[in-house]
Amino acid sequence: MQKLVVLGAGESGVGAALLAKQQGWDVFVSDSGRIAEYYQQELDNAGIDWEEGAHSLDVIFAANEVVKSPGIPDTIPMIQQLHAREIPVISEIEFAGRYTEAKTICITGSNGKTTTTMLIHYLLKQAGVKVEMAGNVGTSLARQIAEGKQPEWFVLELSSFQLDGMYQFKADIAILLNITPDHLDRYDYSMQKYIDSKFRIVQNQTEKDVFVYCQDDEIIAQELQNRLLKSELLPFTQKGILKQGAYSTFDELIINYNDETMRIISQELSLQGRHNLYNSMAAGIVAKVLKIRKKLIRESLSSFKGAAHRLERVAAVRGIEFINDSKATNINSTWYALECMNNPVIWIAGGVDKGNDYNELMELVEKKVKVLICLGTDNAKLLEAFKGKVSVIKETQSMDEAVKLAYRSARKNDVVLLSPACASFDLFDNYIQRGDLFKESVRNL
Hints:
Layout: E1 3-7, H1 11-22, E2 26-31, H2 37-45, E3 49-52, H3 57-60, E4 65-68, H4 77-84, E5 89-90, H5 92-97, E6 103-108, H6 113-126, E7 131-135, H7 141-146, E8 153-157, H8 160-164, E9 173-176, H9 191-198, E10 210-214, H10 218-224, E11 232-237, E12 245-248, E13 252-257, E14 260-265, H11 274-289, H12 294-303, E15 312-317, E16 320-324, H13 331-340, E17 345-349, H14 362-368, E18 369-375, H15 380-386, E19 392-396, H16 399-409, E20 415-418, H17 431-443
Parallel strand pairs: 1-2, 1-4, 2-3, 4-5, 6-8, 6-9, 7-8, 9-10, 10-11, 11-12, 16-20, 17-18, 17-20, 18-19
Antiparallel strand pairs: 12-13, 13-14, 15-16
Helix pairs in contact: 6-11, 6-12, 16-17
């Protein structure tokens, strides 16, 4: 019997373990941290051996194959030793992809992945397509396959870490939204390594497949000059007219595909803002490729509700608006959030810095932010960057205190924006917990 070791017992790891067990593998799950009780129970019920708080290297090195959680860096000694022993280390998506006949729409990019994934899933569902959503959002792909789900299409949000562990897997429709510096600490601070990681989205594509990408992204445009792709290329842009792809005018989004044109009035799109226009363009192109009727595309792009923790309006308290953008874990996401703001901003930021260059935000911050509240265990870099640029800067290590400080600092018509530009792991389990605590604190005002 083939032995599979799963490293990391989160949603993707446990999903992979359940699927592997079902497919006749001898499975062992190892997590250096604590495994949530719910997952422990699932593994026990399935008769899968597991350990927590340590890694038994003798068992791990006896594996025929290893499925690694995206959160575990390739640079740690154990992973290096697995490579040295020529034991394949793959991602849950790579493993799960072997056991489904469904076609895939795969979305990556530094920003906008979740929104675009949810939007495409919503659009297809409204059109009556048999579709499920997985990857970096919701229930893992492996778990859904183990549960017997057999859709026509899987819409998958893929991070660079997931793509790094994918080799044979192929996207039938690949979408690359943008590439901006992010997670560089995982790529030896090499931008090219990060770009290469993102471009794995098109690996193994053939002439029958489709690549949808943002033509306005300079890094993508430059990289495409150095690559020969077999797939059908469908760009989208806000800076010109395209015969094939999507573009925007002053008041319309226009999609041209195979001699058919469809137009949508920009004001009718449920997702507003420049960055969201790109997300709607990508989704619209996919819908046209799948021959969804224009009327349905228009209705879906107008009625979609956005992703939680992404520019999510929480409440207005005495004329002060509170917006939860906890999912903004990098500079570019926060840039988009600040760019959307039309009223004075009290900005709550901070957390685990991933090699941020705050200079990119400077112009927007000077123009829009009146108070900066630094929420983190180490705010030195934030303080240094914005000292003298924002008239009032405060520090705290508590979300409740941050919200109260923001409320006291705000006036009617101001916006309190939680858009951290950093990972959450210093004070919170993840960006979801951070966002939920923000919402709870706002409701307690």
